[in-house]
Amino acid sequence: MESIFHEKQEGSLCAQHCLNNLLQGEYFSPVELSSIAHQLDEEERMRMAEGGVTSEDYRTFLQQQPSGNMDDSGFFSIQVISNALKVWGLELILFNSPEYQRLRIDPINERSFICNYKEHWFTVRKLGKQWFNLNSLLTGPELISDTYLALFLAQLQQEGYSIFVVKGDLPDCEADQLLQMIRVQQMQRPKLIGEELAQLKEQRVQEPVLEANDGLAMLDEDEEDLQRALALSRQDIDVEDEEADLRRAIQLSMQGSSRDKSQDTPQTSSTHLTSEELRKRREAYFEKQQQQRQQQDVPGQLPQPCDRPSTSSGPRGSHPAGAMSEEDMLRAAVTLSLETVRNNFKAEGKK
């Protein structure tokens, strides 16, 4: 298909595209076709002037039809196309005319057709051994099968198209030579340019919507990530709070324990007793206890000073007369310690 020349529609220059697609090359330009149109207009004006330049018909012709062969949009009449083809020795015959119908020629045996409907021109041409619709409104050449050609032309006639058969030898072209050796297949029909433009516009309209949807999806993902991050942050805060609470509880517990210890252990900063003083007090207390026991054993006898009790002599569980056992000494020491504690509490209370 790449070797087939196909001019696409520009403005209203369908007559130009029709001729160039037929001849398979850039043979005509708008300037050349305009020159042919002006020449035809001049010939018509001269014929009308033969009846007199002052006649009503001539003045009406000039006023109502300044040019019947072209307009400002780029449209050209069938006369312009016919005169342009005469340069190449080609002739146009109306396909459904009685003269042509009497020839009973099968369309498949022709070489090309020019079709017109509502000022639009396009070419149907045989290249090699296959037929192609070279309408400039299509995005590319459209392959037409031999069996479909007659039906295609009949459909155009039913739609109101005027069909012209191109008679004469067309100029040689690369596509015709190439397609004489090979046959092509078309997997997808070309679209009309209007349909393609509409599809492109639709895609342009849909693309921002898709981008917006992608943006919403991205926002949703970002929001989910944010929610997860906040949840993890709250978990971290909760853990940190729990750890802080635990540390505070331990600290309070330790402070309470220290307070308990401080309460259990009397403060003796001002009434602190050294070990030597405590030893002396215990000895004095032991002597006092021993004197009291001796007085209880011997009535009327005055207490005598005694030596410090000794626990090194004698077997365990026995002691000499007047001496204290280890058990008695331990009880005495505990009693003295308790008295000391009570005295310290009383001293603290008075403060």
UniProtKB/TrEMBL annotation:
Residues 264-273 have a biased composition (Polar residues). It is found in: Nucleus. Keywords: Hydrolase, Nucleus, Protease, Thiol protease, Transcription, Transcription regulation, Ubl conjugation pathway. InterPro entries: Ataxin-3, Josephin, UIM_dom. Residues 274-286 have a biased composition (Basic and acidic residues). SMART domains: Josephin, UIM. It is an enzyme of class 3 (hydrolase). Residues 253-330 are annotated as: Disordered. Its EC number is 3.4.19.12. It catalyses: Thiol-dependent hydrolysis of ester, thioester, amide, peptide and isopeptide bonds formed by the C-terminal Gly of ubiquitin (a 76-residue protein attached to proteins as an intracellular targeting signal). Coiled coil: none annotated. Residues 289-305 have a biased composition (Low complexity). Transmembrane segments: none annotated. Residues 1-181 form the Josephin domain. Its main location: nucleus. The active site is at C14, H120, N135. Pfam families: Josephin, SUIM_assoc, UIM. This is ubiquitinyl hydrolase 1. It comes from Erinaceus europaeus. The lineage of its organism: Eukaryota, Metazoa, Chordata, Craniata, Vertebrata.
